[in-house]
Each structure stands twice: as C-alpha cells, then as structure tokens.
C-alpha cells in the first residue's frame, strides 16, 4: 500500500505541473482528468495484479520450502534404509558363509553308525552272571567300525553328538532290562521286575556328547536276564548326529 500511495501522489503532482493546465477550458480539463483517472484506475488494477502475484509468489515459496523439507526428510529416510540394507547384506553374507561352511563340513563329516542284536544264531539267554556286559554279536551295520562285537563296546571315533537306542526282551522269572553305560557311568535303562505275565519287552534312547575315545556299552541289571534269537528282540544301535 505504501507503493500504491506513493504512485498516486506522484501522478497527482504531475497533473498539477503539466504545461497549460491553467489555460485549458473546462472541457479539456475534464477530459484530461478523466484520462488521468482512467490511467490511475489501470495503475490501481496493475497494483492489484502485482499484489496478487506477490501473494502467489509467497504461496509458492511456502510450498517450495515444504517440498524442500519433504525432500530432506526423504533423503534422511533413504540414507537410513541404505544403512539398514548394508546391515542386512552383511548378515546375509555371513549366513551364506556359514551355510557354505556347513555344506563343506557335512561333506567331510565322518560316517559312523552301527546296529546289532544279541544272538547271531539260535537262541540265547544272557544272565544272571558276574560279567554283566552284553555283547551283541549279530551285526546289521557297523559303518566307521566304532562298535566291537568281541567286547560289546562302542568307541567314539570323533568328538560329536551321538544317538543311541536299545531294546530288551525277557521272561517273568528274572529281572528284565539293561543299562546304557558311558565310560563306566550309567546313563539310561530299561527295567521290569519278575511278575505274573509271561514276557516283557521295552526300549529306550538317548543323545550323548562324546569325545573321541569315549566308550559306551550295555550291561544287565544285577540278577537280570534277557533273551534273544534271530528275530532280534534285544538290540543295540547308535550313530553320529554331527561332529562338535
């Protein structure tokens, strides 16, 4: 508005000092004033346009600042996502490396497994006896040669987690069952006391962590007895799950 007022005052001053102003007739003065009023009106319209344009420029400036702020925010978000992506790529590469190592190790892992039953011919009653170690003579498999069918002892070839399972069968005249022993220490067992029923069977299993050279075998309970024939009622099996 200050600019508008200044412009109008300037035009009014020019109108007062224009040559011949006091010498013109009334008609000329009215025409001249009318022309000046029209000019002033046009200038006022121009001023309105300028003010409108100034308002639009300010609005554009506000939107531009908002756009800049949004771009800055998006840039920060992109940078954050890039950092997260780098972290994910690092973890993915580490996981792929672990998988490759596991594949390589699995290919190199020793193959160790055995399975045997007590009787390799006819029928056998084992126990009661002083030497309670059960020697499983009938070999179904012995990959890695960890099991010795002369002693009944499995010796771990490598450090690792091993799975063992066993089954026992017997009659009601004696205690029936057996104990899995690791390095002379009892681990798990099967058991059934003398009863009125004719026969009993049971089974058990366990996962053991063994060091290379550790020994595992089966032995009878005191005053215990088990039975086996070629049907394989009393068995002992084990295998390496994975090295550690």
Alpha-carbon distance between the two ends = 89 Å
Looking at the overall shape, the CATH architecture of the largest domain is: Sandwich
The biggest beta sheet, please? 6 strands, antiparallel
Strand content: 25-35%
Query: How many discrete domains?
Result: 2
How many helices?
2
- Unreliably modeled segments: 17-22
Q: Based on DSSP secondary structure assignment, what is the total number of beta strands?
A: 13
Question: What percent of residues adopt helix (DSSP H or I)?
Answer: 40-55%
Domain C1q: 107-244
Protein name: Cerebellin 11
Signal peptide: 1-22
Coiled coil: 33-105
Main traits of this protein?
alpha+beta, 6-stranded antiparallel beta sheet, single chain, rod-shaped
Summarize this entry quickly:
This protein is an alpha+beta fold and 244 residues long.
Structure characterization notes:
Residues 1-22 form the signal peptide. This is Cerebellin 11. It is found in: Secreted. It holds the Pfam family C1q. Residues 107-244 form the C1q domain. The chain contains two helices and 13 strands. The chain is an alpha+beta fold and 244 residues long. The protein has helices at residues 2-17, 26-108, and strands spanning 113-117, 123-126, 133-134, 138-143, 147-148, 153-155, 160-171, 178-182, 185-189, 199-210, 215-220, 226-229, 235-243. Mean pLDDT is 86; it is low at 17-22. Strands 3, 5, 6, 8, 9 and 11 form a six-stranded antiparallel sheet that branches. A five-stranded antiparallel sheet has the order 4-1-13-7-10, with no helix packed on it. The chain has a two-stranded antiparallel ribbon with strand order 2-12. The chain has two domains: 2-106; 113-243, Jelly Rolls (Sandwich). The chain starts with a helix and ends with a strand.
